Fold this protein.
Amino acid sequence: MMPAAGQARYLSKSATWNERGFSLIEAVIAIAVLGLGLVGIAGMQVVSLTGNVDSNDLTIAANLNADMMERIRFNWRNAAVYNGLDTRNPATALILAQPEASGDYTQWQARLAASGLRNAYGSVSVTVTGPLGLTQQLITTTIWWNQKMSYAGAGLAAAGASGGTQFRLRKVVYSTTITPT
């Protein structure tokens, strides 16, 4: 039956219940779910940034190691002269009577200092290996540096720390065998 003109139409309670909008509880739950998602994304960004910094440091150290290794390979006749080379100890440069090896040491030391790696230093060891008549030499170059690590949070609260910075010693080692002819 149709209502007469000018007469209001009243809906039953069940009809108005179905047409209501979001409640406050639904909106709060939606905001909480969105907030948790954003916190998760922020956490992934921190992990990603840390990984990128670590990767960059490793790439720099690997390139510096490869550079010194190539210098030794180029000066292969005098490879044994590089044994015991340590950029932390300037006295090791004095034992390098061979001019190319001395220049390689100086350039490697300068490149390590300019690398951006905190407290970077390198060393070289040369070991005779292989059959006696072949005079093969195992060349090992190593670079150490202190990697900066920031920390904060609940795990340190028990130890009385609220956050800060610490360093861990990192290293990259290259080894190769050369055979002087």
Q: What stands out?
A: Residues 22-178 form one domain.
